[in-house]
């Protein structure tokens, strides 16, 4: 009896495993997706390849509309975070991995422009002209698509429970009243982290930010590697059971903290602490399909795509006419007067800032 | 002659997908402004920061490797030698960390360790101990699987003879069992060390930036600063350290490998006794150690608002209307994407791995041949020890011309995963193949068996289970999207780790809960598959 | 017998899941004796040996040595030594390393180890083999090394699991004699488990016969040999023929025994119990004849008995198909009760 029941197992297991393996028909052999081919050669002239960052997300419907309107086949190529994306483009200069790029932000824009990996392009409609780079050469190559304000967020419920007024400014963050309450991702490993560092540079100046950061460190600021860490683990209103009610996040974060069945978020963004990150699109120099790339950059400015941005990628559209989702309109308010720095200044000083920052904060 | 022919395919693959990209990246760093100028690169090696980073890499990886062995060996003993209930489930379970994306594990660990977390009283958040704990968490399976396949075949009578001669259980372990297991232990230790030394996501997340390893330095230098000179110097440093380690491992191992008389697996299992108490409790501790972060994931995934429920799991089908959570694709689609890539990667890793294992387990006839085989053996370990960033970026700059314009090919991801899985396959199979007495093969040949038949009738019955273990391993590596793949152009079809990464990178309790739920699903699928594979028994090998 | 010296196994039972490997076995062995446990493979004799060594746990019963119950005493504290059929030498240690193993684990000094190892290698006839590795030895040499290793610390009890079975016949006979000499010289108490009665007779002075987990007979060699408890044991001990009922009565009568007349007479005959003699009481026809250096071995169809083995002197003129007369020598037979 025992042996028969035992012996049935292998047979079942073999059958099940074989079935599963067969079901997972190999990518290498019989794949009918048009993902193969890549950019330059191999692909048809109808194919347009877009390099982007890992946060890319767009509804299939919108992308289908692009393909129908233009007749191109779209291939999206996520290539790491904004830094990795930019550096990959620099390294593959002259033999680009794609036709167009979307997702270079104003902290990395100068590197891409200076290295000459992009080419000039003026889109048919440019709803985001207000967000164009300050530098003329960069403005000729880059088309603004969306922006997000990196701001300090606070857990209002926590502050109410602890009978403490939430902070409102950079200065407050260094106030001993808020000792040990602030958590931020590091500028060296996180793009919002870098934005916050840039915001402090803009606020305190080239020679003053170091002193401010020293005061933050003295006030027990916690530095994590990434945004997920800071928000999901250490922030009191995040996913876990954090113990810090002040976190660096986005102006668009509060709507996500509306408890089920209620209408108001439990967190809010401090709009006087924001740095504006603008994301650009561009046509790559040496693109196999420059027309396709141009069509895609044009499409990024379309009303349809602009209005899809908040829900799909959690960013504000650059088109001032675009309708925001209800929740956004109510609770995700961009800053009136966010800090900005010229792209060229960020590019010129990035390494030096990060080194100085590391000396202070690590 | 035959050796050379067999070696061609794996060596060609290694050359194209490892040597070429790494050489390309290092070359970019050394050739600046049109001239060969390594001095600018080598300057980085004199910085005191580099020394600090190298020192931390070495000691943290060493400690993590030792702890992994200290927990892993008793666990292996209990799971492969004792007749304890639930052992095959436990064997599958320890593999679960292997497939969990680093970002989620980092978050899970930190959720436990953060000052207000359940283990906050340990004050480990942001310490080197937390980094080491996570490394151990990930790598326990390497020790359990690599050593387990040899241990379960070890004839217990030798240990019994020693015990009857008056050796205490500890003395038996030290003087009989461990020497017999030495090849597998050294092999798994070197793999664990390499995995630890090249981990960067964990180090960044858990070290709170206070700790840097050679790998995190290369990552920052390449992806953030675009300082290719310094990165090239560090990559070369990494290669040198890894080569040194592999040489040391080879020397230790080659002195220990003997033909072992193997016993039938079923006869090596025995019930637990009082003297096993220490081993059983260490094994329980190890399992609890693996289970704790996983439990944190499960608990987190079931937490809905202030209550509990399966809402996050239901939301994974991607059809929930009015949710603020936006899924790239339904979880089923991501799973099937992961599955397809994993099948490709596993097939490739097994084909290459078997070729290499058969090759390097031969005993060379001449000194030169033996040395050649040893070098070959080590060369296939190198991909584990070299920065994933260097490799990933190297792909982009070297594989950009026909006939090898593979930069954005969907094949690149499975190939890169196969390069990582390959050493695991080789290390799992080689000690077992070497333990086959060559006279058995000679006997079979003399009886008229063709080389293929010798393989089938002498080697296959013995390596059948290790082969399954290796397959499971390769599969898990692929499902978890290890190392290099995060720096490659991703396939357009999002896999599970991509989906999870997306979810955890967004604000909102729903997204966080769904990220955890998706991780649990990925882990469970893995455990079930591994459980099925465990069920495949030696007896069925006859059918092949 | 609370003060007995030696091994005392009482009511020992070892059960694996539902299968009973050792079934209520009681045995005793005085100090200085060598006991052979003889039985077919699968009879539970190896399990009994392992239970005595403490490797298998007893389901019921006790194992005592020198009056002390060994329950709860782990293998390595019993002061025994175990030697397997295939030696189980440690492949990573030299011959000297293997032989000196038990001394090393007891922390004896290096010089003491060296002296004792040389002594033991002399004893087993392998002087100068210390530096060799096990892989370079022949089968017989390995068993000698295993024996030397087992004897190193003068175990209170030596447990031998088919120590000679893996060797070829000539080597086995030589080594069996050596083994007996070595055990006697060292005064070692030993248990030898084997399925080969020749090995048992060559080495042991006491014997226990096991069948299906039970000890069916035990005693001194001659006790067991002279009076096997049943036909099966008799065959196993090497009796050539076992007869029952009418044929048995015929043979007994021919040998001059006074049958008590009941129906279930049983007799075990060695080959030499029936011998050609012109005036023998039995008559039969020769079916096979084969000359050996000492006697001619015959297969004879005996009237009223059936086919049996018999012998003839070398000078006798017997050939296949001839009729012969046979006499019965009951000192070469065992009457079974």
Automatic annotation (TrEMBL), chain A:
Could you state a single Gene Ontology molecular function term? thiamine binding
Q: Which UniProt keywords apply?
A: Signal
GO CC, sorted alphabetically, is: outer membrane-bounded periplasmic space
From what superkingdom does this record's organism come? Bacteria
Which Pfam families does the entry mention? SBP_bac_8
Q: What biological-process GO terms show up in the record? A: thiamine transport
Q: Signal peptide: which range, if any? A: 1-23
Q: Which PROSITE patterns match?
A: PROKAR_LIPOPROTEIN
InterPro entries given for it?
SBP, ThiB-like
Name the PANTHER family on file: ABC TRANSPORTER SUBSTRATE-BINDING PROTEIN, THIAMINE-BINDING PERIPLASMIC PROTEIN-RELATED
| Family annotation (NCBIfam families) | sfuA
Instruction: Write the protein's name.
Output: Thiamine ABC transporter substrate-binding protein
UniProt source species: Nocardioides iriomotensis
UniProtKB/TrEMBL annotation, chain C:
InterPro entries per UniProt: AAA+_ATPase, ABC_SmlMolc_Importer, ABC_transporter-like_ATP-bd, ABC_transporter-like_CS, ABC_transpr_FbpC, P-loop_NTPase
Name one matching Pfam family: ABC_tran
Which keywords fit this entry according to its UniProt record? ATP-binding, Cell membrane, Ion transport, Iron, Iron transport, Membrane, Nucleotide-binding, Transport
Which residues lie in coiled coils?
none
Enzyme Commission numbers on file = 7.6.2.9
Boundaries of each ABC transporter domain copy?
7-237
Single Gene Ontology MF annotation: ABC-type quaternary ammonium compound transporting activity
Q: Which GO terms describe its cellular component?
A: membrane
Q: Which PROSITE patterns does this entry report, sorted A to Z?
A: ABC_TRANSPORTER_1, ABC_TRANSPORTER_2
Top class in the EC scheme:
translocase
Task: Specify the protein name.
Answer: ABC-type quaternary amine transporter
Instruction: Say which species the protein is native to.
Output: Nocardioides iriomotensis
Q: What is the lineage of its organism?
A: Bacteria, Bacillati, Actinomycetota, Actinomycetes, Propionibacteriales
């Amino acid at each position: 009896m025992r042996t028969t029941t035992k012996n049935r197992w292998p047979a079942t297991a073999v059958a099940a495993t074989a079935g599963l393996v067969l079901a997972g028909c190999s990518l290498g052999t019989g794949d009918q997706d048009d993902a193969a081919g890549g950019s330059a050669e191999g692909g048809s002239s109808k194919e347009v390849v877009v390099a982007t960052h890992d946060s890319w997300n767009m509804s299939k419907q919108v992308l289908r509309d692009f393909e129908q309107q233009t007749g191109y086949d779209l291939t999206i190529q996520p290539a790491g975070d904004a830094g990795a994306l930019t550096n990959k483009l620099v390294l593959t200069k002259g033999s680009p991995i794609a036709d167009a790029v979307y997702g270079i932000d104003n902290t990395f824009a100068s590197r891409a422009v200076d290295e000459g990996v992009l080419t000039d392009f003026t889109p048919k409609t440019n709803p985001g002209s207000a967000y164009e780079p300050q530098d003329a050469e960069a403005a000729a190559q880059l088309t603004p698509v969306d922006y997000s304000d990196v701001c300090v967020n606070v857990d209002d419920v926590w502050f109410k429970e602890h009978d403490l007024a939430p902070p409102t400014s950079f200065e407050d963050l260094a106030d001993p009243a808020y000792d040990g309450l602030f958590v931020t991702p590091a500028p060296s490993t996180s793009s919002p982290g870098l934005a916050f560092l840039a915001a402090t540079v803009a606020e305190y100046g080239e020679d003053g930010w170091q002193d401010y950061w020293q005061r933050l460190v003295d006030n027990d600021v916690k530095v994590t590697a990434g945004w997920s860490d800071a928000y999901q683990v250490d922030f009191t209103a995040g996913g876990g059971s954090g113990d810090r009610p002040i976190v660096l996040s986005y102006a668009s974060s509060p709507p996500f903290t509306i408890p089920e069945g209620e209408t108001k978020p439990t967190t809010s963004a401090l709009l006087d602490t924001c740095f504006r990150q603008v994301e650009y699109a561009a046509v790559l120099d040496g693109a196999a399909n420059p027309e396709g790339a141009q069509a895609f950059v044009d499409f990024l400015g379309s009303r349809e795509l602009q209005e899809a941005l908040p829900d799909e990628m959690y960013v504000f559209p650059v088109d001032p006419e675009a309708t925001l989702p209800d929740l956004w309109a109510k609770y995700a308010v961009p800053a009136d007067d966010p800090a900005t720095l010229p792209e060229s200044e960020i590019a010129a000083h990035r390494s030096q800032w990060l080194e100085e920052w590391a000396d202070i904060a690590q | 002659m035959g050796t050379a022919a067999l070696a061609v395919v794996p060596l060609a693959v290694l050359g194209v997908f490892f040597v070429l990209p790494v050489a390309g990246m290092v070359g970019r760093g050394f050739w600046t402004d049109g001239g060969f100028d390594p001095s600018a690169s080598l300057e980085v090696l004199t910085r005191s920061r580099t020394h600090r980073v190298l020192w931390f890499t070495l000691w943290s990886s060493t400690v993590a490797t030792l702890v992994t062995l200290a927990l892993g060996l008793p666990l292996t003993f209990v799971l492969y030698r004792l007749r304890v209930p639930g052992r095959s489930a436990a064997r599958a379970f320890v593999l679960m960390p292997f497939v969990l994306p680093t970002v989620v594990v980092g978050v899970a660990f930190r959720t436990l360790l953060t000052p207000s977390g359940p283990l906050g009283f340990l004050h480990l958040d942001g310490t080197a101990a937390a980094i080491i704990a996570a490394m151990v968490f990930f790598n326990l399976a390497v020790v359990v699987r690599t050593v387990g396949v040899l241990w379960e075949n070890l004839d217990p009578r030798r240990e019994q003879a020693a015990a009857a001669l008056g050796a205490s259980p500890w003395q038996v372990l030290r003087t009989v069992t461990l020497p017999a297991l030495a090849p597998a232990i050294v092999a798994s230790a070197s793999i664990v060390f390499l995995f630890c030394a090249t981990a960067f996501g964990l180090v960044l997340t858990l070290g709170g930036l206070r700790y840097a390893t050679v790998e995190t330095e290369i990552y920052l230098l390449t992806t953030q600063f675009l300082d290719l000179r310094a990165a090239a110097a560090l990559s070369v440093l990494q290669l040198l350290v890894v080569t040194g380690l592999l040489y040391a491992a080879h020397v230790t191992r080659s002195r220990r490998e003997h033909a072992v008389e193997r016993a039938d697996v079923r006869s090596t299992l025995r019930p637990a006794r009082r003297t096993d108490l220490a081993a059983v409790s260490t094994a329980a501790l190890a399992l609890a150690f693996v289970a704790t972060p996983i439990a944190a994931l499960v608990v987190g995934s079931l937490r809905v608002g202030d209550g509990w429920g399966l809402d996050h799991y239901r939301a994974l089908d991607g059809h929930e209307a009015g949710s603020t959570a936006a899924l790239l694709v339904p979880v089923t689609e991501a799973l099937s994407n992961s599955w397809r890539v994993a099948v490709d990667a596993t097939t490739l890793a097994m084909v290459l791995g078997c070729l290499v294992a058969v090759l390097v387990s031969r005993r060379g006839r001449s000194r030169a041949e033996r040395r050649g085989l040893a070098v070959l053996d080590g060369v296939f370990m190198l991909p584990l020890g070299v920065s994933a960033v260097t490799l990933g970026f190297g792909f982009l700059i070297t594989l950009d011309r026909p006939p090898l314009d593979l930069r954005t090919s969907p094949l690149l991801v499975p190939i890169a995963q196969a390069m990582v899985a390959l050493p695991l396959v080789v290390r799992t199979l080689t000690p077992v193949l070497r333990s086959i007495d060559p006279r058995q093969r000679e006997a079979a040949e003399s009886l008229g068996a063709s080389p293929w038949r010798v393989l089938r009738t002498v080697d296959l019955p013995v390596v059948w289970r290790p082969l399954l273990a290796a397959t499971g391993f390769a599969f898990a590596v692929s499902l978890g999207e290890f190392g290099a793949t995060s720096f490659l152009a991703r396939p357009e079809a999002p896999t599970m780790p991509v989906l999870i990464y997306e979810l955890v990178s967004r604000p909102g309790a729903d997204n966080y809960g769904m990220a955890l739920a998706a991780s649990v699903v990925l882990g469970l699928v893995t455990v079930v598959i591994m459980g099925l594979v465990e069920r495949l028994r030696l007896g069925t090998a006859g059918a092949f | 017998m609370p003060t007995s010296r030696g091994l005392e196994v009482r009511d020992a039972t070892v059960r694996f899941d539902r299968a009973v490997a050792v079934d209520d076995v009681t045995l005793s062995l005085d100090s200085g004796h060598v006991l052979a446990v003889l039985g077919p493979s699968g009879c539970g004799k190896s399990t009994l040996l392992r239970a005595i060594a403490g490797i298998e746990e007893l389901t019921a019963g006790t194992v005592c040595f020198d009056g002390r119950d060994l329950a709860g005493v782990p293998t390595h504290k019993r002061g025994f030594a175990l030697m397997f059929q295939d030696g189980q030498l440690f492949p990573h240690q030299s011959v000297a390393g293997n032989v000196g193993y038990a001394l090393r684990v007891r922390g004896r000094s290096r010089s003491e180890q060296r002296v004792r190892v040389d002594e033991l290698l002399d004893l087993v006839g392998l002087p100068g083999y210390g530096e060799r590795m096990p892989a370079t030895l022949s089968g017989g040499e390995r068993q000698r090394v295993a024996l030397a290793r087992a004897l190193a610390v003068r175990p209170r009890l030596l447990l031998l699991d088919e120590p000679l079975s893996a060797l070829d016949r000539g080597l086995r006979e030589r080594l069996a004699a050596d083994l007996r000499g070595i055990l006697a010289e060292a005064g070692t108490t030993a248990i030898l488990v084997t399925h080969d009665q020749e090995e048992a007779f060559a080495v042991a002075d006491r014997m226990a016969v096991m069948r299906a987990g039970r000890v069916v007979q035990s005693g001194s060699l001659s006790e067991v040999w002279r009076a096997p408890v049943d036909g099966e044991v008799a065959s196993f001990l090497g009796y050539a023929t076992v007869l029952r009922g009418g044929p048995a009565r015929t043979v007994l009568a021919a040998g001059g025994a006074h049958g008590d007349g009941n129906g279930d007479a049983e007799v075990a005959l060695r080959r030499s119990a029936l011998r050609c003699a012109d005036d023998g009481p039995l008559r039969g026809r020769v079916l096979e004849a084969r000359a050996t250096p000492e006697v001619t071995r015959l297969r004879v169809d005996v009237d009223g008995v059936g086919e049996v083995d018999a012998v003839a002197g070398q000078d006798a003129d017997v050939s296949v198909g001839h009729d012969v007369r046979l006499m019965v020598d009951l000192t070469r037979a065992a009457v079974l009760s």
